Each structure stands twice: as C-alpha cells, then as structure tokens.
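Q: Structure tokens for this one, please.
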Amino acid sequence: QVQLVESGGGLVQAGGSLRLSCAASGRTFSAYALGWFRQAPGKERQFVASISSSGGSTYYVDSVEGRFTISRDNTKNTLYLQMNSLKPEDTAVYYCAAGYDHTVVPSAYAYWGQGTQVTVSS
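A: Here is the predicted structure, written as tokens:
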C-alpha cells in the first residue's frame, strides 16, 4: 500500500500561482500511476491531471491544460501540481491519488490523500 499526504494549498489571487505537493510512503511508489483530482462544494470530484509511473505520459482536463503541470520525482516519492494563471473556478479541495492506471476515472485509483484546500479570489 501507499500513503499520500498533500500540502501547498492556500489562498491566492486570480492570476497567481501555487504548487501542490503530495508526499508518498512505500518503496513501491515508482510502480504507481498518480493523479490529481479536485472537488468544489456541491460538485462531484473532478479529474484534473495524471501521470504514468515513469512520468513519461500525462493527461489533463481541458480546463487546466496549458496552465497546470503535473510532475513526479520518484527519487523523492513526491508528486507535484504546478498551477499557474489560477482562476476562481479552480477553487476546490485538491486530492492526490495512486493507482495502476493514470485514467480520468476516480474509481481506478486505490489510494487517496486527505486533500488540501485551494482558494482563488477574484
């Protein structure tokens, strides 16, 4: 199993940037595909970005492509989400997740962090 802990959330002005981190435990970290999801109040959990176990393949939801960058450092057991040009609609709790496939479907991910709040003011 793998344990995930997100950090880096906070309050930022529209147009600003944040970098989220997800620290993972377990020596099998490098074998997992990883993803970022977000959930705003009253809405379903939404796929944001994902990355393959090697880091060689990434996916993004259309609304963040060109603004967000997902990356991982397997030597540090850490997943990152660099968020630039933030918009108020990006406001949500952001979760990192680990699974065997970097798909857009939440159920494909077996392990989840507790989430970190991102708030973007207009």
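A few notes: The CA atoms of residues 10 and 118 lie 5 Å apart. DSSP finds no helices and eleven strands in the chain.
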